[in-house]
Write a structure and sequence with these properties.
The structure holds 2 protein chains of 2 kinds. By secondary structure, chain A is α/β, with parallel strands linked by helices. Chain A has 2 domains: 195 residues, 3-Layer(aba) Sandwich (Rossmann fold), CATH 3.40.50.2300; 128 residues, 3-Layer(aba) Sandwich (Rossmann fold). Helices cover 44% and strands 19% of the residues of chain A. Chain A is built from 12 helices and 15 strands. Chain A has a 7-stranded mixed beta sheet with strand order 7-6-8-9-10-14-15, with helices on both faces. In chain A, strands 2-1-3-4-5 form a 5-stranded parallel beta sheet, with helices on both faces. By secondary structure, chain B is mainly α. In chain B, helix 5 packs across helix 6 and helix 10 packs across helix 11. The radius of gyration of chain B is 19 Å and the shape is globular. Classes of the chains: A alpha/beta, B mainly alpha. The interface between A and B is large, with 34 and 38 residues.
């Protein structure tokens, strides 16, 4: 169509649509736009889906109780397909075209690290619900997180392996292409060695690998009591399966990247007796957790929320509290209010934002038993 | 020693899958002189057909597993022939580059369609055959690994028989040698080429199912890496040469596994590809390939 004709057509459409569109109601206040980028499809889709559901639940809940500052919240969600490179593009779009007040996003640290510099340069607060890599919040003063960080998580699993499981010699199987995995392995090794254990060998793989038999055979030959697998659930499940096929019997354990229903779906029986650290347990009897689980289950077809969902929910609630506290959606003031968050009682525990814009909170260790996640213990910071 | 043997077994079962995929690349190259990049996605479709067919038969039975394998092979053979009919045959006689670009287009089409139809999230592949571990000395033989090697060997022998002992095989070799002369001798090139695509795609489907048996998480982009490796294997063995593709696959799988189990596990793909470069430096036509002089 000729551009001019197209313009005419659009103008006609607009003219036709405008009059009857808004019945004479009192002008609704402008919504507060919140941007979210998540891995709704692709390899880590379980993470994105979970955190998105938690985020959505929180937004809907706030809106039914009158929104924030008398304005409803509007959630703009974009999918990065679990692919590298997409998050940066999406962040640019949400920030410069949609002018969101704050950016929520990502579970995987690698993808949060893509968006963080953009949010920082445009001076818009970004809250990552579940990225635990230390470098994410080091990107600048506008980047926050509502979860613990890998140095803590690595320490937790090292203590758990050394004290609770009483392991002496372990092997590491690290994903070299994920900053999350590399750092978790590093901090685990430091603490585990300091506690008198030995890391016999570290084998490596890349995201998307499916064959781990070579690495596992080498680990088996080295003779270890257990294997620390600080990766994401797809690989962790395949690793557990292949380890059991090679009759490696020691316990396997990992970090919060393991928590997804697909871990058990893909890994099946091989996941029994494995352990991982995470942010919260749905079995927790605290009223905040019980209430959240109930609301979540009634909203999403009886699905039990996992840690990513709980963190997504908390990230919205902490943002809303900060906006209320700031009394405005001005980015600088919201940032200051976020930085001042202290003793916020959320689903994932009591959150205080420290001077590095990280949350200090406790971790829980879960195990897989009869095809379900079971709570083992809470480890305080 | 037992570690060495274990790694050798791991490598052979991985290499057998690469070999099955590589055969498809090499056969199509043999008759049409172009690389069918959509082949790795036919591999993916094979795994997904296995996934859906696997739900129709009882899990972990021999007849069920073999029926699924056969069904997926037939399905992919039809898919391969359809692709050839719709995308490549209209370009018969066009410059090779056009066909090559079309192949990349078909590959992207299959991947994107797969993401729409199957969804982008990985799925858990069902257990098709009875699973058992056999311990021989310090060696652990997984039943899936043995099935992979056995099925690959049987299919490669069958392929060899088809190519060298049947009429259509003779016609295939005739077309590969000289398509124009083959037509003059009364060979219907279109039928032969369609058959070649069908055969290659069936092998890719088998490869897809065997791959998914060993690594039971399948997604629409699962074909990309194995496809690339198999392509390299085909080049390594000498593209257009059937035993060469099998040999190339086995070498690549074994090297990758041994490097993967060493302290340089990060560089397993890099080292596997570096070996390819070294071999091609000394034998530019591949291990079993021969240079044919282009007659003008």
């Amino acid at each position: 169509m000729h551009p001019f004709l197209r313009f005419l057509g659009l103008a006609a459409l607009a003219a036709a649509a405008l009059p009857g569109a808004e019945p004479a109601a009192p002008a609704a206040p402008d919504p507060i736009k919140v941007g979210e980028f998540a891995s709704l499809t692709g390899k880590e889709a379980a993470f994105g889906q979970s955190s998105h559901k938690g985020t959505l639940l929180a937004i809907e809940e706030l809106n039914t109780t009158g929104g924030v500052l008398g304005r409803p919240l509007e959630l703009l969600t974009e999918d990065n397909q679990s692919k590298p490179g997409e998050s940066a593009t999406i962040a640019k779009k949400l920030l410069s075209r949609d002018h969101v007040v704050a950016l929520l996003g990502e579970v995987a640290s690698g993808r949060s690290l893509e968006a963080a510099p953009i949010a920082q340069s445009l001076k818009v607060p970004m809250i990552t619900p579940a990225s635990t890599n230390k470098r994410v919040t080091e990107m600048g003063s506008y980047i926050f997180r509502v979860c613990f960080i890998d140095p803590f998580q690595g320490t937790v699993m090292a203590k758990f392996a050394r004290h609770t499981l009483k392991l002496q010699k372990v092997a590491l199987l690290t994903s070299v292409s994920s900053p999350y995995s590399v750092d978790l392995a590093k901090y685990f090794r430091e603490t585990f060695t300091a506690l008198g254990g030995t890391v016999v060998l570290e084998q490596k793989y890349s995201e998307g690998d499916k064959d781990f038999k070579a690495q596992l055979t080498a680990i088996k030959a080295a003779g270890v009591d257990g294997i620390f697998v600080p990766g994401y659930y797809t690989e962790a499940a395949l690793i557990a399966k292949q380890a059991r096929e090679l009759e490696l019997t020691g316990p396997l354990f990992g970090g919060d990247g393991w928590e997804a229903p697909q871990l058990i779906e893909i890994g099946g029986k091989a996941m029994e007796g494995t352990y991982f650290s995470t942010h919260y347990s749905a079995e927790n009897a605290a009223p905040a957790v019980k209430g959240f689980v109930k609301k979540f289950r009634s909203r999403f077809a009886n699905e039990t929320p996992d840690a990513m969902a709980a963190l997504g929910y908390d990230s919205v609630m902490i943002l809303a509290a900060a906006i209320r506290h700031a009394g405005t959606t001005d980015a600088g003031k919201v940032r200051a209010a976020l930085a001042a968050t202290k003793d916020f009682d959320g689903v994932t525990g009591r959150t205080t934002i420290d001077s590095h814009r990280n949350a200090t909170k406790s971790a829980v260790v879960l195990t897989v038993q009869d095809g379900h996640f079971k709570f083992i213990e809470t480890i305080a910071p | 020693m037992s570690e060495f043997l274990q790694q050798l077994l791991n490598g052979l079962s991985l290499g057998a899958i690469y070999a099955l995929i590589a055969l498809g690349y090499t056969m199509v190259y043999g008759v049409l002189r172009f690389i069918n990049f959509a082949h790795s996605d036919v591999f993916m479709v094979g795994a997904f057909l296995g996934y859906y067919l696997g739900k129709l038969v009882p899990a972990g039975t021999w007849w069920g597993g073999l029926a699924v394998l056969a069904g997926a092979m037939i399905g992919c053979a039809v898919l391969g022939m359809t692709i050839e009919r719709l995308a490549y045959r209209p370009l018969r006689g066009a410059p090779t580059l056009n066909v090559l670009i079309t192949a990349i287009g078909v590959s992207l089409l299959l991947e994107s369609t797969g993401q729409v139809v199957f969804g982008a999230a990985p799925r858990n592949f069902p257990v098709l055959f009875p699973v058992r571990n056999f311990a021989v000395g310090g060696l652990i033989l997984g039943s899936n690994q043995l099935i992979v090697i056995a099925v690959a060997v049987v299919l490669m022998i069958a392929l060899q028989l088809v190519v060298y002992r049947t009429k259509i095989g003779t016609a295939m070799r005739a077309v590969a040698l000289n398509p124009k002369a083959a037509v003059l001798m009364g060979v219907n090139n279109d039928v032969v080429i369609a058959f070649t695509f069908g055969l290659g795609s069936a092998l890719a489907a088998a490869g897809g199912i065997l791959y998914a048996l060993n690594y039971p998480s399948i997604d629409p982009l699962m074909g990309v890496m194995p496809g690339l490796k198999a392509f390299v294997a085909a080049i390594l063995g000498g593209i257009g040469n059937i035993p060469g593709a099998a040999l190339g696959g086995l070498i690549l799988g074994t090297v990758e596994t041994f490097v993967g189990g060493s302290q340089w596990s990060t560089y397993k793909d890099a080292i596997a590809f570096a070996i390819l470069i070294v071999i091609l430096l000394f034998r530019p036509a591949g291990l079993l390939g021969r240079f044919t002089v282009e007659k003008v």
